[in-house]
Structure formats: C-alpha cells, structure tokens
User: Fold these one by one.
Assistant:
Number 1:
Amino acid sequence: MKPAPFEYFCPDTLEEALALLAEHGSDAKPLAGGQSLIPAMNFRLATPSVLVDLNALTNLAHVTVGDGSVRIGGMTRHRTLETNSDVARELPLVAMTMPFVAHAAIRSRGTIGGSLAHADPAAELPAVMLALHATITVRKQGGARSVPAGEFFTGLFSTALEHGEIVTEIDVPRAITGLETQAGLRHGYAFDEVSRRHGDFALAGAAAAVTVDEAGVCTSARVALLSVADRPVMAEQVSRALVGQPITRGPLSQLIRDAAASAASTDIDPASDIHASSRYRASLAAVLIRRVLERAFMSLVSE
Ligand code: FAD
C-alpha cells in the first residue's frame, strides 16, 4: 500500500515547525521516527495532507540531568534511552524497559515524543512515564504548557495534545528517580511484560518504582500497567497497601501478593480481544504486579 498524497516540510527550527502546524491546522501531522505514522499512512488509517518532519530539530533530542528532574527531549530515540549512560544511572526503570520496546531497527528510529503522542495502550513508555510521575511539556505557536502523565493519556490512541502542539520535553522528577539528596532513601525499580514473541506488543505489562526510608518503611510504591485498559493505568491499590509498611522479607511477600490481587481485581477491567480474554489479562496483571514489586523491593529488604 502507498500513502495518500501529502505535502512534506522539513523545518530547521522549532518555531518554523510550530508555524507550519498552526498554518495547516488539523490537516497537518508531525513526523518523528515514522514507525507508527508511516505504516498507518500506508494502510490509509491516517491521511494527513501535510507532514511536518521534526527530524532536523536536533535540539529536541537530548537527555539533560537537571536540579529538579531529568529532562528528555521529545525527539530522543528509543535507542538513546536504551544506551545512554545518564539514563542508565539516573533513570534505571527507563533503561531496563527499552529492550522490551519493538525491535532494534525500530528503536533506532522511534522517539519518546512519538510514542507518548501515539498513545498506544500496549506501549511501554507511556506506562513508565506514569510510574515515574513524569510531566510532558507541549508547545504550540505562541505558547507552552505542562501536562502530568496522569492527565496526558485520555483514551485509546488519544491524548491531551491539541492540533498544532508538539511534545518537546519530558520531565522526570528526582523524587521518583532517586536523584534527590534526602539521606537514607533507597529506590528500587522493575519492569516486566508478557508477549507472544519478544518485540511484539505486550498482552500485559507492569512498571514499578518503589522507595524505602532509612527505617525500612515503604514511602512510595508506584506500579503502572499497560495493555489492560484503553490507556496506561496506575495500580492504585498497590500504593494503598504498601506505603507505611515496614519492608521485611517474610511479611513482604504476603503484602505484595495481597496488593497485586487487590489491584488486579479493583483497578482494572481489561477488555477481551483477539489476543487475550479479559480474565486472562487480569490474571496476567496480578502476576506481573507481584513480580515487579518483588524485584523492585528485592535489593531493599531487610531480614
Ligand atoms: P511517529 O510514527 O513518527 O508518530 C506517531 C504519532 O505521534 C503521529 O501521530 C505523529 O504525528 C505524532 N508525533 C510524533 N512525534 C510527536 C511529537 N514530538 N509531538 C507531537 N506529536 C508527535 N512501540 C512500543 O511501545 N512497544 C512495542 O512493542 C512496539 N512494537 C512495534 C513493532 C513494530 C513492528 C512497529 C513498526 C512499531 C512498534 N512500536 C512499538 C511503535 C514504535 O515504538 C514507534 O516508534 C512509536 O510508537 C512512535 O514513535 P515514532 O517516533 O516512530 O512516531
């Protein structure tokens, strides 16, 4: 299949790109890695009459370790997130998740901004950004705004993005990444998913970020799930069950089992589709929540 005819622009500056998007309104779409948009155009599932290619905007591809957060430019490739040493050190949850995203060839082109804007409910990065409490900065001609990840994903392949807006940066706060200087806090992370073959979109997945204080008490337990709803969702029951609890080996296993079972039955109501039934997905979610919590806490527990 070939795409419907379209006009192509490759601006050199963000301002130019925003002006083109403003001028062409809902007819125009930004083009990032093209790994989702181009197949959709080839199948005529998307028929934009104007493409504004963001690939010359090299200043949108960066990982910057700042005072309050790690900032990731919207055009940062998946492969950079997988291999960059700042990401490995400061955002271990992101680094450990990237090998689960598609295949190496796709990761070398796909971008974080494209993944968040595309908002596939089975995509890994939206769930990881939710778990890490990230904030997404979007810009349009004449203005910018910041949208928390929890408000950015509004439904199936739907986001809070308006026509003419570009995802320019993602801020991941220190409090969740473990960069803050507060003495004695320890952080653990884990990601896991189940898919038919490696690189396929997941049938279900879970990302965990947990924090334990000096006294061994859990101060934060965030688990975000993918592929169990029309958007990434937080397993809210996990935080309710674990925050404030002393993290000691014996009781922890039972606490985690209870939290996972409760989250899978209360926080999600997955749909059935050709890949998996609702019941199967819910049971996968319970297993994955338990598994990521066990792994995330493993290095932090006391005897
Ligand atoms: P594009 O395809 O260029 O754009 C996607 C959409 O986002 C378009 O609507 C575009 O207009 C919009 N957009 C892009 N950038 C911006 C921006 N900065 N601001 C605003 N709007 C923007 N993904 C996974 O998460 N997990 C997988 O397992 C997975 N498997 C895949 C397997 C295959 C075979 C393929 C082809 C893709 C797979 N993907 C998977 C998708 C891949 O990760 C894509 O790269 C990603 O979803 C989109 O990123 P992109 O940069 O290619 O965006």
Note: The chain has 13 helices and 14 strands.
Number 2:
Amino acid sequence: MLSDKMQEALNTQLNKEMYSAYLYMAMSAYSSYTGLKGFANWFMVQYQEEMLHAMKIYSYINDQGGQVKLAAIEQPATEFESPLDMFEKTLAHEKFITKSINELVDLAIVEKDHATNIFLQWYVTEQIEEEGNDNEIIARLKLVGEDGNGLLMVDKELAARVFTPPAASEGD
Ligand code: FEO
C-alpha cells in the first residue's frame, strides 16, 4: 500500500521518465535530420529505455493498489548545437533524474515503505549505468573535436546499440 505522499511522488517520477523519453526522442529526431543515423539510433534506444522506466512505475503503482495520474509532458528542445551538446544535456538531465530517484528513496525510508524502497533500488543501479554511458560518449566526442571523420566513426559505433526487451533484461 502506498501513502498519498508516496503515490504523488511516484506519479511525478512517472512524468519525469515520460519527459526523458520525449527528450531523447527529440534528440533522435534532430540527429536524423542532421544525417547522423547512429546517434539517431542511440537516442531512439534511449527513448525505449525511458519508456520502460516509466512503465515499470506505472505497473508498480497499479500493483500497490494506487492510482496512476498522468500529467502533461513538457515540450523538449527541437534543436541542438552539436552531438556533444546533446550528450552534455543528456548527462545533465540524468544527474537531475538521479537526484530525483535519491529523493524518492529518502521518502521511502522516512515512510518506512520497504516495498517502494526495494522497488527503487533497480533505478539507483540503472542511473549509475546511464551516467556512465553518457560520460564515456562525452569523453570520446571531446577527443574527436571538430574532426568530421572521427564524428562519423562515433556515429557508426552508436549505430550498433540495440534495445534489450524487458523480459531479457537484468533486474526485471
Ligand atoms: Fe530513466 Fe534515464 O533515467
């Protein structure tokens, strides 16, 4: 069973995950528009991951007999300065999400809501991976700098990313 406060906080997090999906979809669209198909693929996989994050919360609220309440999703930017700009914004956004997850865990502890605390641990671990991926790609993009060939090589690498469906993913 969820307290009203916890239900509201989880619904807010659900909205943040939906915004994350929307943000990465916008980055995928802009990457396609600028001819970077590998970046477009990477961000579309990230969109799918964020939808998974959102739907896990959706199912959890339902499983706990709570009420899912959907709110408006904020509009993301439609243009970005460069691939590096997109990944720097991605990392900044993921840091914001990590902080948000940590605050949810704090609330679960204060409320002695052990079930929600355990549920949230998956997200705590996931955020380490998310920030790690972004840091790695940012480092590579900084090495490449203004070199077009280097950028196309990174684009080729990012084209290889595939979404792992929930049933086959760890911790699900
Ligand atoms: Fe759902 Fe990228 O955190």
Note: The chain has one domain: 4-159.
Number 3:
Amino acid sequence: MKNTAVIGAQWGDEGKGKVSHFLSGKFDIIARFSGGNNAGHTVIFDGRKVKLHHIPSGIFHKDKINILGSGMVINLAMLLEEMEELKKVGADCENLRIAENAHLIFPFHRLADGRQEEIRKDEMLGTTRRGIGPAYTDKAARCGIRVGDLFFPASFKSRLAKQMEGWKWVMGDSGLSLDSIYQDYLKMGKRIEKYVIDASLFVHEAQKEGKKLLLEGAQGVLLDIDWGTYPYVTSSCCTAAGAAPGLGMDPRRIEHVVGITKAYTTRIGTGPFPTEDHGDVGRQLLAVGAEYGTTTGRARRCGWLDLLMLKFSCRVGAIDSLALTKLDVLTGIDPIKVCTEYVLNGKSVPDFPVIESRLEPCEPLYRELKGWDEDITGIRSFADLPASARSYVKFIEDFCGVPVGIISVGPDRDQTIIKEPAFYS
Ligand code: GDP
Ligand code: IMO
Ligand code: MG
C-alpha cells in the first residue's frame, strides 16, 4: 500500500467520508490533518448512518489508530459528544489519538464567527458558524491555545486571559467568564489526556515499522485558504500538502493523492458557482442526491460537473487519481451536461480563474453527453456499467488527464466500483 491522501476536489461534501471509510481497512493509521468540526463526513457503519466531524473514518477498526492532527482546530465539547455518539454504535474510541499541538476552539470563537458574518452582511461567507475562522486567526496571530497547554494550568489560565482580551467585543452579555471557561477546559482536558500524543513522533515511529497512512482531508480544493474561491473559503489548507505540517510528516511520504469529486457539483455557503442550476436539474440533484449539509443541514446548491474547475483541482491538489461519487444520482438525466470552458466578453477562458472577481462574470460553456436510465446502484464492476456511464467517466479522465480509480454508486460502503485496483493495493 502507498501512503494515501483522500482530498475533496470541489467545494466539500464530495464523499470523503464514504471513500475514506471504504479504503481505511487497508491502512494502519487514519489521520485528519486540517479543519475542525466544520467538516461533516458521513459513513454507513453496520447499516447506520454516522456523521463524523473531527474523528477520522477509520475509527470503527479497533486495530487502527485514528489521529487528529496538529493542523486541526478542535472543539473539545463537541469532540467528547462525538466520542459518546460513536460509543453507542460500537466504536469505543480507545484507538483515538490527538496531537498535542492542535489548536482549541473556544466559545468566544463561535460567537465571533457569528458576529463576523453579521458584519459581512451581503458578503456573508455562509460559514458553518463553528468558530473555525476565529480559531485559525488566533493560531496565526500567535495567541491561540493548544491541546497540550491544558496540562499546564497556570500558564493556560494566563494565556487564556490574554486571548480573551482580543475577543471582548463579541462577548457582551454572553455570560462567558475566564473562570468558567478555564474550569470547563481543564475538566475536558482531563477526559482526553490519555489520547494526547506528539503526532509527528508517533507517525515517524510507525513508518519505521512499515505502517501505512491514510490521510483524510477535509473540505475541498476550492475551499482552500490559498487556492479556493477566496474569500469564500475556509481557513485551512485543504490539499494533501497540508498533511506535512498538519501531522508533522515528511511530505515526500505522501505517495498517492485521491481527489474526490461528485459526478456533478454542489456548494454550501455563498460564493461563485458558475455551473449552478436554478431550474429543474438543480432541484432534481438536490432531491435525488439528498443534498443537505451534514454539519448544518442547509440545502446545498447544485449544478452540472465543472470540468474546468476539476482540472484546476487536479493541478493544485496534485491529484493522482479521482474517485467519482454519486454517479447513481445522474441516472435518468439525459443529456448530461459538463462544463468544459468559460467565456468572458465573448472570449474563451481556458483555465479556471483564481481571482474571484475574474471568475464571477464568467459564463460556462457545456458539452452534452448521453445519459442512461438503468439503475446502477447494484453494479460492482466498471464493465457492467451502461455504455454511456462508461463514456461519461472516460470523458472526465480525458479532460482532466487523471484516471478515475474508484466509482461510487450509492452511500453504502460496498456500493463501490474499483476501476483501477492497482492504485489501492
Ligand atoms: P464528505 O464531507 O466529503 O465526507 O461528504 P458528506 O458526507 O458531507 O456528503 C456526502 C453525502 O453523499 C453523504 O450523505 C453520503 O452518505 C452520500 N454519498 C456518498 N457517496 C454516495 C454515492 O455514491 N451515491 C449516493 N447516492 N450518495 C452518496
Ligand atoms: P467537509 O469536510 C462543505 C464551507 C462553509 C462556508 C465556508 C467557510 O464535510 O467537506 P467555515 O465554517 O469553514 O469558516 O466556512 O466553507 N465549508 C464546507 N462546505 N463541506 C465542508 O466540509 C465544509 N467546511 C466548510 O459552508 O462556505
Ligand atoms: Mg461533508
């Protein structure tokens, strides 16, 4: 097995949870390295739908270690809740590890997230309001508090007091006090202390023993802080490259990057979305694809597959193979459109524009491809897919210059076609 990263190639919710869960059995360590509980990764375990927000999709394998990496921001109360929920479905979380240098989300970060959105008004980002942006802001401003700081009460308290000074303006009459937060976090710290590790040391030692890593990305390339549709992005690195600082691992050991893409496009939150469909097709994708946010329950915006954008993701995300999810949702749509080019003022725009103001006025140009009517949810081999579904996959591969290795035809773990087994063995 190669150390493999699974990253979102669109605006998140591509099915990273499903694909990571599917692949996790082959690896020794499954690690998140970025984001926080803005993520919502759905897996079906023992016939039950489980939503993971911090915890990697390998948690159900008791013999595999699941790490929350240093690049993450962690909401301890929500993490403890998530662990309790997992215990109810048979995952005891004894195989969880938490990087001591991951940053903590505090209640004032959540308040600030909400207030900042109100201030943005018509330029609201549509964040998950989990306090992600403010927590990463404190990290970059060097006034954040990390998991390992909880075990040094005196310095934790004095740093917390200074950190809270910066967020006084959002606290108002929220009732938040230094003492109450300090006491709550000390208590929660005790509950997670046994899981806390030096993630880099752990990963290096494991690699010396030949153990293999699955890096479970969060969000997607187009939500990346540098290469996404800024400012309508999240606050972290969403490509596999983030796993090096976000886990303290050697970047040269990231050996295969799987980019997950839906067979169409969705986006939650605001920001440009050239192929968004406000008509029947958008409504059909929303209904058939059950496109409602895993974390916030918001309806996702839906539209055709944007190949110009996907090609950009493959480049920026250094994607070696694609996993195409939700192909089953396109059944019955004929023709199926894919965007292959943008036009601006009558001129072709051959590459996905990085600057949002350049992207916003672009109009998508489509190619029409033949659809299929057959139910494909029970198909397990590429050869058994209808010819037009195979052509659809081939068109994506040719356009992006990247092979499709996995095709997902339903939410269940086994509703998966491995088209290129060599990539995952
Ligand atoms: P993630 O954030 O990338 O892990 O994706 P989410 O879990 O937020 O959203 C993906 C949704 O699509 C979840 O409800 C999955 O159960 C579902 N899903 C994943 N793959 C497929 C598929 O191939 N077909 C269908 N119909 N649903 C899928
Ligand atoms: P997973 O890992 C989809 C979006 C939000 C908003 C923007 C900024 O499940 O794919 P934030 O709360 O991060 O400051 O919000 O990013 N967003 C996601 N959209 N899937 C996610 O995660 C997302 N995480 C953040 O909707 O537009
Ligand atoms: Mg999600």
Note: The chain has three domains: 4-9+22-98+196-256, 104-192, 260-424.
Number 4:
Amino acid sequence: MNYTIGIDIGTTGTKTLLIDEAGRIRASAVAGYKLMTPAPGWAEQDPAWWARAATTSVREVVESSGVDPAHVAGVSLSGQMHGLVALDAAGKVLCPAMLWCDQRTSAARAWIENTVGMDRYLRTVLNPPLEGFTAPKLIWLRNNKPGIYKKMASFALPKDYVRFRLTGALCTEESDAAGTALFDVANAQWAWDLMEPLGLDSSLFPAVRRSVDVAGTITARAARSTGLLQGTPVIAGGADNTCAAIGAGIIKQGRVSSSIGSSGVIFAHTDTVRTDPQARLHTFNHSAPGKWYLMGVMLGAGLSLKWFRDTFAQHEMDVEKRTGRDAYEQLSRLAEKAPPGAGGVRFLPYLNGERTPHKNPHARGVYFGISQGTQRSHMIRALFEGVTLGLKDSLDLIEDVAGFKVKEIRATGGGARSAFWRQMQADVFGRPVCTLNHDEGPAFGAALLAAAGAGLYPSITAAVNKTVKVRTTINPNMENHKKYLALQKTFRSLYRSLEPEFNTMEND
Ligand code: XUL
C-alpha cells in the first residue's frame, strides 16, 4: 500500500494528514500558532512557526500511523493565500509575514490602481490588487521598510516557504500565484508587462509550476526532522481554497462549495475563464490543471462567531472547560431557540472590512434592530444569519457571472460541522446542501494532489472520483427561504446606508 501526506498551513494552525491510496485517513495532527496584530489592521506570523508546525506534525503522523516512510509516495502542501514572505539571497526570512487578512495596504492599493490604470490591470490580472493580496504588500514594504525591501531577493507564499524549507527549492504554483494579483490568470504566467510600470524587479518572482508537478524532494535535513526519507517527492500543491475544493470534489463545472472557516468562501469550478465586470468575485487558477474558478470571499465568517465567543460567551467557555461541551455548539443551540429573522435583529459581519461583494476594507460589523425584547439567543442567531446572508451575496453573484444555475452546494469547513448551520445554509440559499465523506479541509486536497503528482492516480480528477463522495443532503425549508429572501433586502440596504459612515469613520 502507498501513502501520501497533505500539510495545510492555515491561519490558526497547521493540519497534516497521512492518507492511504484509497483516500482513507491513517493519521492526522494539528500544531497551532498565534496571529500577531501589532497595529490595527495588521496581521502577521513568523514563517518559522509554520515550518516548525509542518515538521512536527509530519513527524507525528508518520510515527502515529506506523507507516513505513519508504511507503510514503509523496508529500504536498496547501496554505493560506496572499501572504508575503520576504527572503534575502540566502533564503533567510527578512521580516514577519504579512497575511491575507492584513489590511494596512490601502495607500499601496490606490497607488497600483492609479499607476497602471484599472482597465489595464484587470485585463491581465482579472482581479483588483485588494488590500489583502500580495501585490500591495510588496509596494507597502518598498515604501515603508526600504531597508528590508533592498535586501529582498525573492518572495514566497506561505506554503511555498514551507516547501522551500523541506526541499531547498523555491517555487510557487499557479493557484497561489494567482492570489498575488500579479499573475496573468488566463495564460498562467506572471503578469510580466505590469512589472515595469510597478517598478518590480522580475528576479523577485519565483518559478511557477502546476499544482500536480513534483517541485523538489525532501532534503537530508528535513528527513531528520520529519522522519520521512530523504528524496521523498514533494508535489507543488495549492492554495487552501483550491485544495479544499479538491477535497470537496469541486473539479467539474456546475459544482459549488461553501466553506466556513475563519473566512467564508463560495467556490465554483469553471472550465473557462469567467470574470465579474465589477471584479467583486475573484477569478483564479484552479489546482486542477488548465481550469479556473470563481470565488466570493467574506473576511469574517467563523471569525465573527469566534469574536462573539471570545467577547460575550465567557459562560459557554467556562462550561466547555468544565465539561468539554464545545462553546460553539452551545452557542448554536442557543441560536436555534430564536426564530428565523432573529426577532428583528440584523448583523452585518464586516468586522475586518469585506471583500465580496463590497471590496471595502473600511466596512465594520453592525448589530441593528435591537429592542427591549431582544435576548441573547436573538443576537447569536442574527450573527449566524448575517454570515450566511453574506455568503448568499457571493452565491448570487457567482450564478450571474458563471451563467449557470447552482443546483446544490457542498458544505465544508468548521461551519459545516453544525447541523443547525447546515440547515440555515440550505434555507438561506434555497438549495440542497450536501456533506461529504471527508471533512478534513485543505490538507485532504493537498494529500490528493500528492497522490496524483506521485503517480498513484493518472490525474487529480481520477483521485477525486475515487475518494470523494456525497454523504448526506439537507433540503431547504422553502417557508424559511422566503423569509430569508425578504431579510436579504434589509441586509443589503443596511450596508448601502452605512457605507458613507464606514468610509469616514476611520478619520474620527
Ligand atoms: C482567499 C483568502 C482566504 C485565505 C484564508 O482569497 O484570502 O480564504 O486563503 O486562508
């Protein structure tokens, strides 16, 4: 029997899976790390934490599975997108990595848009240089840390940095390169014609592979720290969203997933390049070679719930400590007690600004409609509803742009574990919501890329067809759906009314 390993470099931790060639999970390990927010809107991590988390978790799965390392056919990685790891000529990290949820780069974004012109930019990159993307981070670094920028010889995306540490070879691959917003998405190459106007040296940009390509092999040093054999192939891998999509079987036009983790994502596979004329959706390269996807991203999905738990749910957290009963589970039980519509309370889930559909880093969270009769259960339900309505905004846009009607949605991520939230998704979307035989997130997709890349399967499609199956289908309650359609109107008009306030608030 052959085995593969998938490593997902997430925002709150790294998850590693060891699977057999039939897709069965033999071992899994998680290693957490913190998120640094040294200033409002900043989000940073030390890339060394990722590398350490990857090596310790790989060692753990190799040891706990009892699998002979000689039978590990390949390793691959997935990771949080858009991060910037600045490296010097010797491959040393020059400063903490700026992450996807870092919002400090508004001035750099505006500079890029004015310098190149949005029409020209969108023609090649197909996506605007949003605050969280890598492009404005590079410009921010040049403007604000010129000493570091001068020493920078190349940059890496988070999982590419970890692969570099495992193999000694630095490269990226199409799905993560697309998220830099410096990539020619239709032609799958760096957007070379934009480098000159932006003053970016082409030598900074690493080689681009396909997700299924062998990108290097485990070095002697990495072999010592992970327990793998030196020479084990390391397959390029993909962005966390494409790997999650692969794990959910989204490798065919018409298939769509909703993923609720820290961020919330609606992901639709497309066989051809499709773009939203207003660039509210992202158009990026899939990890399935030669394919693309449309994606709507909300920045504060699970994060909104985490904020509520950490700020207002001390009681539930105490109960969790005493009894082991998950605080989130307790909160969703409480939300269930309130009726759809949450007694008139509305929640706008824009704690860290929003990408889809508003592209506005200045948007903020809002509770609206609180009355004397409002109870805690209403507040919590309103939060679940606000996040789910935010995802519906992306779903509606995707249907418009992709030109097909979404028949069912595959639910993934932490949010899919709650039966209450799955039913709410079905009711808000007005479509059946499915769960899958695996819900291991991007690490599973990365392990499948390793299987395809190492030749255990002829293609990633074959690997997915063999290992990913729909397990359950939840049908929408159409009565509730009607209510949610009405609610969606207020949800949208509230944002529109408040937009001017959001945009000036920061100056107060
Ligand atoms: C996608 C995005 C997030 C991160 C989180 O554009 O920014 O989903 O990849 O891991």
Note: Residues 11, 80-82, 100, 132, 179, 240-241, 263, 265, 297 surround D-xylulose (CB under 6 Å).
